[in-house]
Amino acid sequence: MHPDHATLVLMKTPRCSLPDVPDWEPLGRQRRALNPQSKWNKRHLSWRVRTFPKESPLLGRDTVRALMYYALKVWSDIAPLNFHEVAGNEADIQIDFTKADHNDGYPFDGPGGTVAHAFFPGERFTAGDTHFDDDEAWTFRSPDAHGMDLFAVAVHEFGHAIGLAHTSAMESIMRPYYQGPVGDPLKYDLPYEDKVRVWQLYGVRDSVSHTLRPDDTSQPAEPPVLLDLPENRSTIPPARDVPDRCNSHFDAVAQIRGEAFFFKGKYFWRLTREKHLVSLHPAQIHRFWRGLPANLDSVDAVYERPGDHKIVFFKGLKYWVFKDNNVEEGYPRPISDFGLPMEGVDAAFVWLHNDKTYFFKGSRYWRYDDHLRRMDLGYPKDSTLWKGVPPHLDDAMRWSDSASYFFKGKEYWRVEGSDMEVEAGYPRPIGKDWLVCTEMQSDSPEIEANNTATRGRGRHHADHAESGYEVCSCTSDSATPLTPQLALSPLWWVIPLWTVLVTLTARL
Fold first, then answer.
1. Of 157, 448, 466, 470, which is the active-site residue?
2. Which of 8, 113, 405, 506 is placed for a possible disulfide with 109 were both Cys, Cβ 3.0 to 4.6 Å?
3. Cβ–Cβ contacts within 10 Å for residue 233, how many?
4. From CA 448, how far away is CA 197, in angstroms rounded?
5. pLDDT tens, position by position, 326-356
6. Could you read off the pLDDT of 271-300 as tens digits, one per residue?
7. Annotated binding site for Ca(2+)
8. How far is CA 148 from the centre of its chain?
9. pTM for this entry
10. Is 157 a catalytic residue?
11. Domains, the chain, ranges and CATH?
12. What is d(CA 422, CA 174) in angstroms, rounded to the nearest whole number?
């Protein structure tokens, strides 16, 4: 069943990092069912902005605090929750602007990836904490194309922080997709869907909001002032080298930690185990995989090594080995280490049938034993032995359904289990089946600009919840990293709330 037009339009926007429905399967090895009714057992909650944006001269500290105040007030206006700012380290909701691996198991991935995440209420010391990626271009009262609207993202993330999961309701601020600014913070009113859901958790407030202004922990007073900042303040131009995921081939495709990664140029897209696109906008390879050359313009092939689960990148006659998202010492090294000819690699994947690694180049393929670190005898062989698989592949990978997938151009082929013959009905389009594309769809700046101009302003969204996807890299109280020590900062396979993936071309 394919999504309808309205759904596809909505999916052309940034997402939160939490899953799309209340009962998710996190990216970790064990399934954890999140209790969608998790909530605070008290009604007076303290908050504190512990660290502020470091690279945003556009947003001063007072403005950031005021935006947090009003984003929390959105919820306390309608529910019996009272928020007050404190100066100490004991705040219930700790708010941080941070980058990359920030020691919570859910690292950020630089501009264009997850933009924020929050933890659900619970017993963990991180319950309620909300983190914003300081690599993003945070804005306030700026046009869509100039960055991420901090107020809109904060309202969504604080929804997670008080216990709300994502919803499919079209008008909800808790949708998985971010759709730009939601209007004046002084006048913003939650959609009815969100009011009902928070009422179900906490009941209905019987009086006016008791959210206190910054630094006032005693009684309500005049709210903080939000200066009327000038328009078009951002000096960060939209990125022009961001590839179009729907109308181009991919340099490499790999399954890593159970997720699918599609690499193109200097960027990559990520899909969860459930084959949900984390964000419609890509993250930058070198910002996430620390140790690759900063001037690397593309990769040829990537695979996760069986046995030690390290990740191997190929480019030209060199390769790199990563433990999580950090390169190992001594790399790059020549691909001759594998016994491969000095011609480079088109594709690499581990066949589930025998746990051997297969390398493809042109019309030949090799079989490598990663456990013994040696090439098997009798190779290379003619790739026509894989019946129906075309030569000169872009890349290949195995997937969690036990099948092998081969990619070339805009199409892919599927080989079931231990078979070496393509299934009937293939090839099929990559964009449509994997990357939320429709026919005649494009991610070009011109088309994105038109889409932005026609977006419905009443819709607000982001998607990343307990297992964390985009706009709201939502991490719940029960969320845990995919592996105990992902240097990738366990965050990348994470379970965050509104991981707002945003690129400068079309913000999340």
1. 157
2. 113
3. 16
4. 32
5. 899 999 999 999 999 888 999 999 998 899 9
6. 887 787 777 778 888 878 888 888 889 999
7. 92, 109-110, 129, 133-134, 136, 251, 300, 348, 394
8. 15
9. 0.58
10. yes
11. 15-28+43-218 (3.40.390.10), 252-434 (2.110.10.10)
12. 41
